[in-house]
């Protein structure tokens, strides 16, 4: 644990250097700028033999977020498509998270080969998305958001876009932070009316029973407040200085798989080559405010809007504490499916039970005792253990026309 804490402090210091310094310390760390051919379609999806198109959606607050659309290797893009499915990634990830295994192991490919019309979401700030209509990634205002905005702006607009293009209600699939976003979005009547059903992998709304030792230590040390106090707004762990740091850490000093375990819990079912490939694409940037919001949830045991402090809360919300997201507002008629694991240190079973009590409906549940947080994305047996069950749930609902 001491070595891991040293890693955390080194990361914090390196973040400060790479974000604040100038001159010789300016590494052009933001990898957001890519050449036109460096797209998710071209990098991961087309090389596997799938047709893929890129789409850009503008949110109501001006961010330009990317969607990719793919279909089976065995079907012409111009042919009949199945029901639309929107995949929403988790924290420090992007749409590539659904394609980090072989076509037989990765959910994005599996759904396409099963005949679904697959759409892949990428929230603001991630490498595949496209910035803002007026703000630069160098502006602190660009990073003034948490998962709340990701849910109510990014995900809501992506669902609307897919619904409008396909004229069908959308199956939404989320993992980790993608499930927080999904639950918050589905509370909104104008969003849920466009959704056929939701499947949540490692579902999270409450976090106060989280057991990940490294995360709990960071929360206890108030590292989220330290980062904001240092004037850091973007958390970009792929800056050159951070890449060099993590390379040195993982080269004979500490197993990066062990570092993942201290954050996510023990994962049973993926191998070291999967971890290596994972780190080729992850992590993606997020905002310091987002981390702060998540740490607030851990400390307070709430599923609420961002806490700005007493006086600003009064100004924004008309009350001292931020209002909660009321899970009871998700319609009882909305079909829900949830997959969760016994070794998941982030999506704790006790917290999930609280979520289930607050929902009106009764979701279909898949519990895997030996699965950890990342197994639901990277398991070599994911199709057999998880995805076939999810797909059967979708197929039981059929393909509904938009209202």
Automatic annotation (TrEMBL):
Recorded superkingdom: Eukaryota
Which keywords does this chain's UniProt record carry?
Answer: Glycoprotein, Hydrolase, Lipid degradation, Lipid metabolism, Signal
Per the Swiss-Prot or TrEMBL record, the active site comprises 176 (nucleophile), 344 (charge relay system), 373 (charge relay system)
Which InterPro entries does the protein's record reference?
Answer: AB_hydrolase_fold, AB_hydrolase_lipase, Lipase_euk
Partial AB-hydrolase lipase domain residues: 42-100
Segments passing through the bilayer? none
Show which residues constitute the signal peptide: 1-22
PANTHER family registered for this protein in UniProt = LYSOSOMAL ACID LIPASE-RELATED
Protein name per UniProt: Lipase
**What is the scientific name of the source organism?**
Populus euphratica
